[in-house]
Specification:
single chain, alpha/beta, Rossmann fold, GMP Synthetase, Chain A, domain 3, 3 domains, 25 strands, globular, Acyl-CoA synthetase (AMP-forming)/AMP-acid ligase II, AMP-bd_C, ligase, AMP-bd_C_sf, AMP-dep_synth/lig_dom
Length: 461
């Protein structure tokens, strides 16, 4: 790929993503969308973007829900040699306005009409294309994303087209991913890295059919698996595992090959419930927006450890923090040496790298280590214990002038019952000083549990 202002020639979209038999089905929504149709739609969208003022080296802000319109305008942006700024459609107008003021795209694409209910995974969207500014892109990245902000304010993260292409090719060398001619039942949002690269871009490159279920329900996901005879991999996050673990399949599902999850750690009880019900591997992926996929365990053989993805190095620092190889600073407008320095991304995750096998075990956030009366306590251990208790759907444990646990019940539960169960399982100094039961724990737009003490305190009040 030749170099230009964005780091690569825009022809990379044709070479890496859209090449192939015109009749190959890329997406099933539920009607099939083949490569010829997708190429035509991308060409039409590219014309609309240019008419709105987009120029090569400019930027487009996409504020679209998962939809064919999102896919088409994303590829058309890159095909124009421009930068795509991905804004989750669930952000408030205030949040979007702040992002636009900071990133000043030339063009904004947003819905003028959206069909379907709130539980739809893919939406029927009519997109409006509007001029915003005449400025070129503020950096040479092909994509700019906002981090999920699960532990605090979101960061602005940029990746070049070369970064994306390298990650797509990395997926092709991972044992256990969906293969050409198979299907990915796509559950995570394509605004975020798992759904974007592990789903959309890899699927287009590897000739894997992408199938979003009609609705976000266990029955709809299983119906999507059973709809065709080809092998299917369900791609999701821990929330989706819980959804399927609590859904009884109507019959055998020989098409179901495995489920692969990314995001936060999967509670052991949830993993067992899934594998007991479906009898297929529950694969695990560890990654970050900054670098994409870092490591995998797609056969569930090493849980909770993962093996570094091909071409990725993982190092355990002297403080127990995991560092990941990352040649260039991924942060836009930020040069914080505590987050990236000398080719290494500082993940803020605590972990251990086995010197003999190279397997990596993630222990949770580095800031989950606290001191209580001179005794070290890992809040991840407390949280894991809580999520393994009967009647607990999910939990978050933070330090807020003492160990504080926020718990979402799954059925009848009282704070006294919880405290008694914990007393049987944890030393006194490890037990939460404060227990708060919430009908619903707050989550980020990617489905991760929010871990900000301030946000949790507000939700609890």
């Amino acid at each position: 790929m030749a170099e230009d202002a964005l780091g690569t020639d825009p022809e990379w979209v044709d070479e890496l993503l859209l090449d192939g038999d015109p009749g190959d089905v890329c997406l099933r929504l539920p009607d099939p969308v083949d490569r010829a149709t997708l190429r035509r739609l991308v060409t039409d969208a590219r014309t609309r973007l240019a008419e709105a003022g987009l120029r090569r080296g400019g930027a487009v802000a996409l504020r679209l829900p998962p939809s064919l319109a999102y896919v088409v305008h994303l590829l058309a942006t890159w095909r124009s040699g421009a930068q795509a700024i991905l804004l989750d459609h669930r952000l408030t107008d205030h949040e979007v306005d702040r992002a636009l003021e900071r990133l000043t795209p030339q063009v904004v694409v947003a819905p003028v009409r959206t069909g379907g209910g709130g539980l739809r995974i893919f939406h029927d969207v009519t997109a409006g294309v509007h001029a915003y500014s005449g400025r070129p892109a503020g950096s040479g990245h092909a994509v700019v994303q906002l981090s999920s902000g699960s532990t605090g304010p979101s960061k602005v993260i940029g990746r070049t087209a070369a970064d994306l292409a390298a990650e797509v090719r990395r997926y092709t060398h991972i044992d256990g991913v969906a293969l050409p001619g198979e299907r990915i039942i796509l559950l995570p949002s394509m605004v975020h890295v798992l759904g974007l690269v592990g789903g959309l871009l890899y699927g287009l490159h590897a000739r894997v059919e992408l199938v979003p279920p009609q609705r976000l329900s266990g029955d709809a996901i299983l119906a999507a698996v059973a709809d065709r005879d080809t092998p299917a991999t369900v791609l999701g996050v821990p929330f989706h595992i819980g959804l399927l673990a609590s859904t009884t399949p109507p019959g055998p599902l020989p098409q179901l090959k495995r489920m692969t999850t990314g995001g936060e750690l999967v509670p052991a009880a949830v993993a067992r419930a899934f594998t007991d019900r479906y009898g297929v591997p529950l694969g695990n992926m560890y990654g970050m927006t900054e670098v994409g996929v870092i490591g995998t365990d797609l056969y569930g053989r090493h849980r909770p450890a993962i093996a570094p993805a091909p071409g990725i190095e993982v190092r355990e620092s002297s403080t127990g923090e995991l560092w990941v190889s990352c040649p260039a600073n991924p942060y836009v407008g930020l040069a914080d040496p505590t987050r990236w320095s000398d080719g290494w991304l500082h993940t803020r995750d605590a972990g251990v790298v086995d010197p003999d096998t190279g397997l990596v075990t993630i222990k949770g956030r580095l800031d989950s280590q606290v001191s209580v009366g001179g005794m070290k306590v890992d809040l991840t251990e407390v949280e894991s214990t809580l999520t393994g208790l009967p009647g607990v759907a999910s939990a978050v444990v933070v330090w807020d002038d003492g160990i504080t646990a926020y718990v979402q019940p799954d059925g009848p539960l009282t704070e006294d019952t919880l405290d008694a169960l914990l007393a049987e399982r944890l030393a006194g100094y490890k037990r939460p000083r404060n227990l708060r039961l919430l009908d619903q724990l707050p989550r980020t737009t990617t489905g991760k549990l929010v871990r900000s003490a301030t946000a949790l305190r507000a939700a609890g009040s």
